[in-house]
Design brief:
Length: 650
Amino acid sequence: MRVSSPNKHHKTMRIRSLEDYTAAYRKSVDEPERFWADIADTFIWNQKWDKVLDWNFEDYYAKWFIGAKTNITTNCLDRHLLSQPEKTAIIWEPNDPNEPEIRLSYRQLYEKVCAFSNVLKKHGVKKGDRVVLYMPMVPELAIGVLACARIGAIHSVVFAGFSASALSDRINDAQATVVLSSDGNFRGTKDIAVKAIVDEALQSCPSIQKQIVLKRTGAKVEMQQGRDFWWHQELENLTQTDCEAEIMDSEDPLFILYTSGSTGKPKGVVHHIGGYMVYTKYSFENVFQYNEGDIYWCTADIGWITGHSYIVYGPLLAGATTVMFEGVPTFPDAGRFWQVVEKYKISLFYTAPTAIRALQAQGDAWVKKHDLSSLRVLGSVGEPINEEAWQWYYQNVGKNNCPIVDTWWQTETGGIMISPLAGITPTKPTYATLPLPGVQPVLLDGEGKELKGNGVEGNLCIKFPWPSMIRTTYGDHERCQQTYFGMYKGYYFTGDGCRRDPDGYYRILGRVDDVINVSGHRMGTAEVEDAINQHPAVVESAVVGYPHEIKGQGIYAFVICDGEAVAQSSIEQLRKEILQTVTQHIGAIAKPDKIQIVTGLPKTRSGKIMRRILRKIAEGDTSNLGDTTTLLDPAVVDEIKEGAKEFHTA
């Protein structure tokens, strides 16, 4: 089969000026297929496509580079062996700054991915099988992801902060056959028993046949004969180290990543190989204005989409040096981020508003202690960044000299959709500014009518496909259609409210559906409510988001408990138990910040909970709750307002 090498004589796809951006955007709208074909031409394909795009948002489907064959790891690894085999691909910075870092060249990463690919094959993993990874932020996590991609297995990384129950839900939904784990996980001052969590999950996961365990902390663990195998021993026992990349169709699935939605069950968002590959590299290079020699650090965890697209795939496709960080921003002190920037001379730095606000609260002295002169571009991801944090980031971290790319995108979009291009797009605090080429945003009103022109506010939708878009929700395509394409026929609905200002800049206003954005991580209110309701004393609950000075949004739970349980236990004890229940069923990340025990909830006569009223109360704004006369029991609102005072009188 003929291998198509990148077209060396092809006009560069890099945007270097506002004029370049305007021309690229116009072409992407006027001639989208030609635009993306030109970019795709810069990749290695075993077989070229017959057609660039086939789509219909009415019935929801979109296919990219139809008939093309490739393997994403050929473009992440093999191609760089020819031009820069000794260049550092990954720098790993451990949790403990006294532990030595690890640097892997592109050659070393290639060899380790090939070797572990053979381990997976030895354990029966084949093309199309699902492999779940529940691991710390160590190089082996990236190696495991790439090994799955190399042999055509579908990887599903689960953030190693989720509970055993949440992990088993995700394993069972994907019907995974193999899980990759570790003995433990160092995170700040904590030593987390990773394998014990996985073992608990596997008690209710009949599809899992093998568990391959990385030795990280040295903690004593139980190994089940025939099922559990040590990562290092499996590598030592290999007889073959080379591994040819499996030739995959452009529209074959690459990975599943679970995300919360407005119903209790997490959705397995599926991304496919060709379009995702093309878009992540293109967006990485242009948003961050990556140049040869840049050291790039995204502080996210690979358990989230940011880590998939902008720690692993985007940077490696571009041949960049990408930093992986195992720890937390405040360990051993609040200067850790800045110490790492100084240590590696980071030039491109990408983090979340939550981290920025938390470090801002620690004071400027921690930043001033370190030489940050290597920084060229700052990025923000996960949620809209507030102006105070933006200004602090710009002035104290960037020394008024580094453009901030305030990026808007989602698990479902696969890559950055609306963002300044560093040093090219004039920025405006709190604004994600302009769409990337190929992205066609529209604002719709509640009736689905498009709001034309500037100076308007509505629901953010996308009216034309882009290469890295969600293809389906695993095992339930109808759910994908209903969730993303059912609200407004013919449009992808993002779930976010948005303002387009007089300059045509986009400002994301937050979720308009029942999803809370906590520290940049989306939590479905229904999922949190389901977990709270598992407590035997809980009758019913309602969860809303409220403004939180560090997290952006906090979780406020209104909980009805069994009267007898309330009488027998203190309110404080009930709250503690409910928090433990949520941690057990989802993980500590979903714990409510405030739990108000109530005797009733504001419901309409048809039984619908009026969340609008609860949001106002949670925000401490009870001056105008609107008309409550249509409620089944209007008096319950006064009782909830009275009970909320304890949370608003600090």
